[in-house]
Amino acid sequence: MDVRGSPEGRRPAPFYDATTIFPDHVVGRVVAILALAALIHRDRTGAGAHVHVSQAEVVVNQLDTLFVTEAARAAGAAEIRDDISVHAVCPCAGDDEWCVISIRSDDEWRCAALVFDKPELAEDLRFATAEARRANRAELSAVLAAWTSTHSPEQAARLMQSAGLAAGPMNRPPDLLEDPQLAERQLFSTMVHPLIARQMPAETGPAPFRHIPHAPQRPAPQAGQDTRAICQELLGMSPEHIEQLIAEGVLFAAAGT
Predict the structure, then answer these.
(1) Where are the beta strands (DSSP E) in 125-250?
(2) Residue 225 CB partners (closer than 8 Å, separation 6+)
(3) Per the count of CB atoms within 10 A, which of 78, 138, 173, 199 is most buried?
(4) CATH number for region 86-170
(5) Catalytic: which of 17, 24, 95, 96?
(6) What's this model's pTM, rounded to 2 decimal places?
(7) Which domain of life does the UniProt lineage start with (predicted)?
(8) Residue boundaries of the structural domains of the chain
(9) What dihedral do alpha carbons 196, 199, 202, 204 form, nearest 10°?
(10) Residue 107 catalytic?
(11) Contact 228/218 with Cβ under 8 angstroms?
């Protein structure tokens, strides 16, 4: 799914593969919320619930503003600008290193000019207002790139953030484990899987809670890992009957369980 484009010239964007599966990630979280809603419904009414989730509908819901905006443009509405910010992906020192920077107001642009050690840019008519910055986006991006190209992504982001500006380094997957903000928020914890010889990082949970402990962490179960527990604890079957069915191939249980 490609939702990019040029608001100014309405140029079609080329194909772009994000190399990640956004719908799978977001729908999994939505399903977890629906499961909680079903449990609350059961506790209140004593009745079960059937939950049906359309992945496409969930993703459309995430893009509602975009769809409404594009529909308004197609209908001939006046130019719609829901964001006066200028967002830029800037090259940094090193090979294929990048950071992202957002200039969201005139005050932020004046702060950025001080970070660049070029206070005269604050009064430059090409960039002094939001309209001017948008109209001269290419020149502004060149100014940002000239500064970021002399800094590492982490340095550029840190200097901008220290001035109250929105910025961040481009993180490759291995970099996420060392990201100071993610580390401070304790986003990751280690997990051991019986089929993998080393510890693996995993998300700790959806959010830190003050009075709710972290959910128990365990790896994805092996096929048949819980066969005996389910048959005995939920179905009330005797251990002898369970073992007989496993031996006959009716049930399957993972080795060592």
Answers:
(1) 166-169, 188-191, 200-203
(2) 253, 254, 257
(3) 199
(4) 3.30.1540.10
(5) 24
(6) 0.61
(7) Bacteria
(8) 1-82, 86-170, 221-257
(9) 140
(10) no
(11) no
